Amino acid sequence: MNLFPILIDATAFVKSLSQAPAFIQIGFFFLIWGLVWLPIAIPIAFFVKWRPFAPLELQQKLPLVASLYLLAPPILWKIAALKRVPFSTFGISLNTDLLTSTALGLGIGAVGILVLFGVQTAIGWLHWNPENWRKWLTASLPTLLLALWIGFTEELVFRGFFFGQIASNFWWGAIVSSVIFAVLHLIWEGKENIPQLPGLTLMGVVLCLAFVQNQNSIGLPWGLHAGWVWMIASLDAAEILSYDETAPEWLTGIDRKPLAGVLGLSFLLVTGLGIEVFWRSL
Question: DSSP labels for 117-150?
C-alpha cells in the first residue's frame, strides 16, 4: 500500500487547519481531546460505575478527571508544534514571573474566600467548628496540590488556549469561553450544578481579566483559581464550617455552594474590580 498520498493529504489538512478560523481550531482541540480520552474513560467509568451527566462521588471523579487532565498539556503542545508557534503562546513561560504571579494569585484567592466566609460569620449565618482544625491541617496539603493541578490545566485550556485565540475582542471572547467553561462542568456535576452556572461564567470572565492584566500569562488566573478551589475544598473536607438554618440560600448559595448565591457573585465582582485597579496601578 502506497502511504505517500495519505501523508500528503494529512500534511495538507494540518496546514489548512493551522490557518482556519479560531473557533475551528478550538473545536478541533476539544474533539481530539475527547477522542483520545474516550478509550481511557470508558473502562474507568465502568469500573467506578459512573454515567455521564450524573453527579460524581469523589472516588469516581478523581480517576476520570486525572485521566482527562493529564492529556491536555501534551495535546496543546502538539497543536503548538503544528501551528509552528512556541508553547508560551498559550500563556505559560517557565520563569520567575509565572511563579510570582501564581503565588500572588494563590494568596489573593485563599484570603478572599476567608473574607467571604468571615462576612457570613459576622452576620451570624456561618459557624466554625474549631475542634476540626487538625482535620483541616491534614487535608490542606493534598487539596492544595490538587487545586494547583486543576487550576493549571483549566487555565491552560480555557484562558491560555481558548480565550487566547479569541481575545482580540475581550468581552466577546471572555463571555463565550466562560459560558463554555461553565457548561462543561455539568459533565461532572450533572443538573445539580445548574444553579452555579452564572457564578462559574462570572468566575471565568474574572479569570480572563486576570489573564489579560497579567500580560496574557496564566500565572495570576492559575493562582486565583487554585486559591479558591484549595480553600473551599480543604474547609469542606475538614467539615469545619456549618451554616445556620436561618441563612438565606439565595445569599449564601443554593445547596451552600458559594457560586450559587448573591454573596459569591458579589465576591467575584469585587475581585475582578480589584484586579483591574491594582494591575493598572503597577
Answer: HHHHHHHTSEEE-GGGHHHHHHHHHHHHHHHHHH
DSSP 3-state percent helix, strand, coil across the chain (nearest 5): 80, 0, 20
Regarding whether 66 and 106 lie in a shared domain, the answer is: no
| Confidence (pLDDT) at 81 | 87
Average pLDDT for consecutive 10-residue bins of the chain (282 residues)?
A: 42 61 89 94 88 74 92 93 89 89 96 96 94 92 96 97 92 95 84 90 97 94 97 94 91 92 96 83 60
What letters, b where the CB count within 10 A reaches 16 and e where it falls short, cover 55-77?
ebeeebeebbbeebbebbbebbe
Provide the 3-class DSSP secondary structure of residue 258. Answer: helix
279: cell is 494591575
Helices 197-213, 262-280: inter-axial angle, 10-degree rounding: 10
Task: From residue 68, give the alpha-carbon distance in Å to each of 24, 35, 40, 75.
Answer: 21, 11, 9, 11
- Of 85, 101, 120, the last residue of a domain is 85
Domain span at residue 140? 92-282
Cβ atoms of 118 and 217 within 8 Å: the answer is no
- Asked whether residue 25 falls in the same domain as residue 105, the answer is no
- 261, 251 in Cβ contact below 8 A? yes
DSSP for residue 242? E
CA distance 211 to 199: 18
Entry pTM: 0.91
C-alpha cell at 236: 469542606
How many structural domains does the chain have? Answer: 2
